[in-house]
Amino acid sequence: MLEGKAVMGETDMKQTMKEDALTLASKALDCFDVTEPTQIARFIKKEFDSSYGLGWQCIVGTHFGSFVTHCSGCFIHFSVGSLTILLFKGSVGEPAPRTDGLANLDSIVK
């Protein structure tokens, strides 16, 4: 398990879900090389979708920024060696009104 090797960033997950995330990251790193971050992300995302319902997003890499909206209790950000893993369940809100002058385009496209 990665508990001792993972450097925890931010999280609002309950302990059991956090442990699942670390366990799945460990399994993913056993199955895939660190040079395959997309495969690692896919593995973790699919397992969380299966265990905790659809809507999970996973980003794995060495250099990335993020600004996300997530469901409460469904966010974790941690590093393992050179890889950083961001896992969260997206939050659905009301779409913001368009301010780019293309509001009428939405009704045409539908």
From TrEMBL:
**What's one GO BP annotation on this UniProt entry?**
microtubule-based process
Q: What is its main location?
A: cytoplasm
- Name the domain of life this protein comes from: Eukaryota
Question: What is the residue range of the signal peptide feature?
Answer: none
Q: Which GO terms describe its cellular component?
A: cytoplasmic dynein complex; microtubule
Per its UniProt record, what Pfam families does this chain match? Dynein_light
Task: For this UniProt record, give its keywords in alphabetical order, as a comma-separated list.
Answer: Cytoplasm, Cytoskeleton, Dynein, Microtubule, Motor protein
Q: Where in the cell is it found?
A: Cytoplasm, Cytoskeleton
Extract one GO molecular function annotation from the record.
dynein intermediate chain binding
Q: InterPro entries, per this entry?
A: Dynein_light_chain_typ-1/2
Q: Return the PANTHER family for the record.
A: DYNEIN LIGHT CHAIN
Spell out the family assignment given in the record's similarity comment: Belongs to the dynein light chain family.
Q: What is this protein called?
A: Dynein light chain
Q: What is the source species? A: Arabidopsis thaliana x Arabidopsis arenosa
Upper lineage is: Eukaryota, Viridiplantae, Streptophyta, Embryophyta, Tracheophyta
